[in-house]
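Ligand-bound model needed. zinc ion.
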Amino acid sequence: MKLLFKKEAIQKVKADTVVVFLHEDKALREKENQALLKRFGKPSLAAIESGDFKGKLSEIAINYLSSDRRLFLAGLGEKSKVSLETLRRAAAGAVKRARKSRSSTIAFEIPQTQHAPADTITALGEGTILGLYRFDKYLTKKEESGTLEQAFFCSEEKRFSSASKSLAEAQIIAEATIHARDLANAPGNEIYPETLAKAAEDAAERCGFEATILDEGEIESLGMGGVMGVSRGSSHPPRFIILEYGKSSSRTVVLVGKGVTFDTGGISIKPSAGMAEMKMDMSGAAAVMGTFEAAAGLKLPVHLVGLIPAVENMPGGNSFRPGDILRHYNGKTSEVDNTDAEGRLILADALAYAERYKPSAVIDLATLTGACVVALGHYATGMMGNDAKLMEHLKAAGEKTYERVWELPLYDEYEKLIKSDVADVKNVGGRWAGAITAAWFLKKFIGDYRWAHLDIAGTAILEEAGDYAPKGGSGIGVRLLTEFLRHWK
Ligand code: BES
Ligand code: ZN
Ligand code: ZN
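Prediction:
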């Protein structure tokens, strides 16, 4: 799907489907209707005149301008309440409907909103590409529908004159998000540490950043006992993926992504119901890779380092076990109380490794705890960290992109819950505050840098379709971090 700007009035644009946005406010809608009648030269737009179409968000009325040209009236809800998220949802609704009627081109009239023109256009573009996403690679008989190939965004107004640039940016960011979704949705028999590393190398080649892959021997000699321990039960050896972009910039941000390509729980095995979802336990890694793709595509002026410990957590004769003590990259030891709390064990090595880059910030993303899903559900990412300014920036980026984050307290009192009698720290903290004790574990391994931890267990894995994401991997984190990186100083 290609996003294109046309400095032309919508009624003159050639497209199979033409979309005009309308509002719920009655007087406004009547005015908009009059304008439509004039522009499209139709005697009547019955959906509006009959009162059937109210202009509510997600409402679509289809008019036929001819047998092969449709005019969609698409509701945006009340004008004063139109947010960037409204625009994403409305665009997604329209493209999905247009694809169903086998349109191959669609044209949107860019609506008037209270938002900056660039933001309005980016939101519409994102909704268009993300809304059309399907994970149908493995279906030998695909769902019957057309393929939308081009979306035009149309306006004659001067304020939208730089729309082409906004659309090109939206295209890059949305495609990076889709690639993160594809990686997360790919099954465990396709994506395991070696193939995740290969995917990173391919993305690096395609998008213009560097990827260095450390193999099992190198991981072992570096002393990354967490990565080594967790991966021992699997026939797939671990990989440690290092991405790098923008070396000449002086400001360094390290992104760390949990890359558990499948999490059975190991010896502390998970119940089988729902275990299949754990093919997405590398969603943090996918988000980091997608962010690199977007940052390189947008040529962001930042030095980015990506660290992805990649392992498969399996039970077996060689598995690490409860009671084992692991020694991590920085020399600290951890007692394994539960092999299903594996994410923190591999992240510990990566977070300690991050120190060598002297970063201005380190952000880790991980599908880390079921407890975070219990606390926040699927609509907010749990955030903890050691720096208010960094977390404020992430919060702002979350509101803008609607990949919202919510801070949980990392109070000192929680630290004692992960105290061990035999090692420096224990990998589980008992029944309460599981998202927080997991973050406290990570905090034990960070270096002298600003750090934020994002627990994306609920937001990366969707149990139900959203407005512009099907059930499954959401690709969360790509838009959030890209927006964050644009503003972080
Ligand atoms: N990958 C899981 C967390 C998870 C759960 C992600 C649900 C997405 C959806 C993680 O490795 C895990 O198993 N955590 C345990 C920790 C517990 C043993 C302390 C959990 O949350 O139950
Ligand atoms: Zn686990
Ligand atoms: Zn896990």
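The pocket of zinc ion (ligand 3) is lined by residues 260, 263, 281, 342-343 (CB under 6 Å).
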